[in-house]
Design a protein that fits this description.
- The chain is built from five helices and nine strands; from the N terminus they run ααββββββαββαβα.
- It is an alpha+beta fold.
- The protein has two domains: 32 residues; 152 residues, Immunoglobulin-like, CATH 2.60.40.
- The strands form two sheets. It has a five-stranded antiparallel β-sheet.
- The longest helix is centred in the N-terminal third of the chain and has 30 residues.
- InterPro entries: DUF1254, UCP010244_IM.
């Protein structure tokens, strides 16, 4: 084997190894992050209301580039204590929810178009909790909740409320903070 061939194979092997290590580090980085969104929202596990994470007026936020036309609130959930009920009363402004696992990203999203009679009620649960809820359900009176099956027990919910005009920002923030995230006693029992 010539020196040129050996040099080519060594260079190619080094590039392939470097690419593999680079890709592995990129995929592993989120699991090593200590200050991720779930950990920042951990205190909301004991609260009933969503926490505003994009305040107006230039206040500090941990979002990288907050949108001034959107009020953003969030709350964490832990399904080991039971299903979590998320309740909101949509107003005139656009309202959306995105459901995230602790480590894998978005697994469900919904907008205020899913509201029934002016109220949006969602229940986040594990597959086992869904089976139990279905077994306990009355056939003549089925549940009207939107049930969302989470792939992991821990995660967080991001609420976005549009504020198309600066004068509507306070109203949007109030709507975002009014979202409740509580353990669902009906489904947990």
């Amino acid at each position: 084997m010539s020196n040129l061939t050996r040099l080519f194979l060594a260079t190619l092997s080094g590039l392939v190894l470097a690419a593999g290590v680079h890709i592995a580090i990129i995929f592993a980085a989120p699991s090593f992050a200590e200050n991720d969104a779930f950990n920042r929202l951990q205190e909301t596990l004991t609260e009933d209301q969503a926490q505003l994470i994009s305040p107006a007026g230039g206040e500090k936020t941990w979002l990288p580039l907050p949108d001034p036309a959107t009020a953003v609130a969030a709350c964490a959930f832990d399904l080991s204590d039971g299903p979590v009920r998320v309740t909101a009363k949509p107003g005139q402004d656009f309202l959306s929810f995105s459901f995230h696992t602790k480590t894998r990203g978005v697994f469900f999203a919904v907008t205020d178009r899913a509201a029934i009679r002016g109220e949006l009620e969602l229940v986040v649960m594990t597959p086992r909790q869904l089976d139990e809820a279905r077994a306990a359900e009355d056939e003549n009176d089925p549940s009207r909740d939107v049930r969302i099956v989470a792939p992991q027990e821990q995660g967080y919910i991001v609420v976005r409320v549009a504020a198309p005009r600066p004068s509507q920002r306070v109203q949007a923030e109030e709507a975002a903070k009014a979202v409740t995230c509580t353990i669902d006693e009906d489904e947990a029992s």
